[in-house]
Amino acid sequence: VSDQKPLGCWSVKHGQIITCPVVCNFETHEYIAVHDDKVLRIWKNKDINLDKVFKATLSADVYRIHSLPNGGPVVLFKGGGVRTLDVLLEAPQQEIENIISDEVIKWSEASMEGQQPVLIFATEKDGNFFVYVQKLKMNRLQKYKLEQQELSKPLSFTAYIKNQIITLLCLYSNDSVYEVLIPLQQTSEEEEQILSKSLILKLSVSGSVLKGTSFVVLDKDHIAILGSLAAPGEESKECLTIWNTKFQTLQTSKELPLGTSGQLWCYEEKFFFTHGKVLTVMMYKCETSSLAAAVGKLKDSQTPDVSSFVNWNTLADEELVVSFQSQQSVALKSESKMTLRSKRNTVAKVQPDTLSVGQILLNLKDASTTVFEDELRQLMSKAQMPDFQASIGCVITALIKRCKTNPKYYPRNFLLHIVETRDLSYSLCPDLMSVALEKKDVHLLQICLQRFPDIPEETTYACLKVFLSISEAYLQRIDVNLESVICYIDVEFNNKEVKTEIVENGFNAELEHDIWDTKITKETHPTAGELCPVGPQKAALLNAVLQSAYSEAFLLPHLKNLPAQQAVLFLRYLYYLYVKCSEKINTALPGTRSPTISQIMDWMCLLLDAHFTVMVMLPEAKELLSNLHKFVRAQVRFYSELNKIEGSLQELQRRNHQKDSQTYSIEVLELI
């Protein structure tokens, strides 16, 4: 998620439907899915086709699979039956008991109490709600009935276990959150006990009411609720809110203007929810609840509390602190230990050392260029700064913001220094490459492609298009890193062939002064196909694109928009690299940061998939495709011949191991 890159994708056949969320088995590192209610599928990362993975048809419909880090997967059936995955796989067609008869499961959750897996699920029948607690190792099921609430019903549940007590929280339709305590050590023999509930939170503040859809527990005093906040006479707005249940106060809220699916997940101090068409990840941190902090949040709303790595693009200038601090992993923090009494007094001027990164950048908003850059360099020099990497991302964001407001301002060397010396990613500074593309700063784009692991395919394609469109004459005046090409490239310049070669143990001093002053190693007269179709600078830039990470499904639609002439030029360069690789026994290009033969072939296939019809129709591509076809066919024949003698070579190797190496002999082997 942090790299924003898809790692795998699997599809069921047309007509099949995945009927419950897929989970990961933490013990075997396998994925488990159920489609069409009864068909179980289990596979690993290396599997590609779901039709060829493990399949088991069960005897009853599955409601949900829960995966526990130390307890293994647990399968809950729609009839209330529960099985561990291991027991289920021993006999997939085993009969599953129907426990809940006409009741419908509304929610379920599994957790560990010590070494004991515990499954909790809630059901509904005729307006009545029931809670079941299943202890798997003891095979004990306990049923409870929720105390009824007039004119309202539970919409969502969540639960956690502590000190042998299950704390069940229920979000009701009357905009309230209730708490139910269920002891795990059951002493009563009653078949069905009535659970009483207690009100812990009313979802209203200053006349506004939150219509919650889902919620999660953050700690013993805080919960997060996703829903719509509506004030009298105003249109409701979807938002994420964090509440203090101890003091029944709203800690903070964040409006979500693009809308959500109504689902909220929480894992390792991160929120996950959909915002518009994207998955949003928001980091948070809860501190010990105190009355001063709870009341202080209501008294002063200047401090941003919810933070995320997401660039919302909806923040106004006065919310600059929020946008900067959104890249620091902080939320729900107490308010610098101010007391209510100090609030009424004049607040002393805050010293610069105590200011957050966001506040420092806000203070520099109107500073001169020299002061602005000096302060940013000073800020970056603080190695002990909390959330250092995120703070560097804030610095780049501030630089880019100034570039956008002042088109004449572009601190190229400063940006290049930051990218080369800091371990950054695209997600920390998403606008950096877009500005570099706009300025046609190919050197910065090259470094970003080499160092960022999470560049979106659309940006990779934009870099490729810019690199192919820039003239060779312009590139000769640009500083570009040539370490990926200087060991192998052959180019034609002023009708003379130039073959670059590394001497003096991998270093050629002449190359440091002028790429065109390279030593001519030997005079030859190669054919046009043997010469690199692009200059060294453009070749180095294209190599950076070839080595960037991508997903074929996301890149192909963009690649189809590449102009035909640029596509042909790119294919000629890929063909040149392919021939160069094939000249070597290890099929690898010399030098550092050189593309591998797998990367070259993958891009060649992608380009042909995207432009094959156009290539066939273009006269200038006809000879190129013909040469490529002949070369590949010759390689296929060569490897086919090698395969024929593979058995003989293995036999020869076996015989050599069996003989005494000290004995001299000449033996003639006939290869048939």
From TrEMBL:
Residues 1-285 form the Nucleolar protein 11 N-terminal domain. Its main location: nucleus. GO terms for molecular function: RNA binding. GO terms for cellular component: nucleolus. Residues 360-671 form the Nucleolar protein 11 C-terminal domain. It is found in: Nucleus, Nucleolus. The keyword Isomerase does not apply. GO terms for biological process: maturation of SSU-rRNA. Keywords: Activator, Nucleus, rRNA processing, Transcription, Transcription regulation. The keyword Zinc does not apply. This is NOL11 protein. It comes from Rissa tridactyla. The lineage of its organism: Eukaryota, Metazoa, Chordata, Craniata, Vertebrata.
